[in-house]
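Data availability (excerpt). The following record was deposited with the supplementary files.
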Amino acid sequence: MTLQQKELFQKSPLLLENGETLSPVLVGYETYGTLSESRDNCILLEHALTGTAHAAKHFEDDAPGWWDDYIGPGKTIDTDKYFLVCTNVFGGCSGTTGPSSINPKTGEPFRLQFPGFSIKDIIKVQRELLEQLGVTRVVSVIGGSMGGMQATEWAIDYADITDSIINIASPLAAGPDAIGYNLIMRMAILNDPDFNGGNYIGQPEGGLATARMVGMMTYRTSELFSKRFERFTVAESSPAAFSKEHFQIESYLQYQGDTFVERFDANSYLYLTKAIDLFDVTTPAKDDLPAFSKIKIPYLLIGITTDQLFRIHDLRRGYELLKEWDVPVTYHEVASEYGHDAFLVEKEVPKFEPLIRSFLSNLPVKSI
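Predicted structure:
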């Protein structure tokens, strides 16, 4: 079953964390497996910043998904056992309401008139979708990077229907490194003359491509780049030409930027990176307790020692905080030359799969 869409918050508007409201909200999502008669075998999978709901193939000739190796009959997320749901995030550009959607009040795209939102708002939309799908319990919420932030919020806001959390490569609060990189990427977009205050035609290609190139430098490692590219040059290139790539690393980054502008919206990039920056479950709430202290369900945290975006020291600090507040947390570290993106692209050694499979297998789950 490929991309589906549901219209939510028609009777009562979506109330955002900042007090603004929005109605209706269209949600794009994909499902795998079958919801059990008891409606309690759901796994919610959260995608990262530029991902989509298409997590795996639905049939042999289908386009590849971003987590094909993990999803399917007999795989880590066994679709003979679990009902998997993956949504396009609220504020994105791949099937769910976001800045490029039409504002029903004006008949024009929202663009920068779209309300600001948080990770909490993203999962509120997901919670409403699961309710409409008839899901009564969630076996686990699984996510990496920005997806891990969403998973953590589920443990805080919806623990009443959630049995466990798997957070891969995501801290309890965005660190200064990530915030700084996100600022640079947003400035590249905002300063592109084609951005036009968010009212661009097509895309502000130069700014968005540059943002993607900056991002790619944080998603992988210097060791991987050295191994793959060294100082290799492009055939028939001129070292004096600024408009053409001379080194292979330049060609690689330019390709990443060029292909990205074909599939992602610049305004969504601005909003989503800001939501990442604002994510922080360590700040005391009204009761003077950190939000994460409310987590009482099994929580698997996986850090990547070579991560150049969400640094391993932040993950280790998060683990210590969770332990200090008696959160039932299990922590593992994975080393990979792929860095932050390892959970998406690591193929040679099954570094994440055994950890996830073991964690899920120890949960009381009914088979369909």
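Summary of structural features: The first strand starts at residue 4 and ends at 8.
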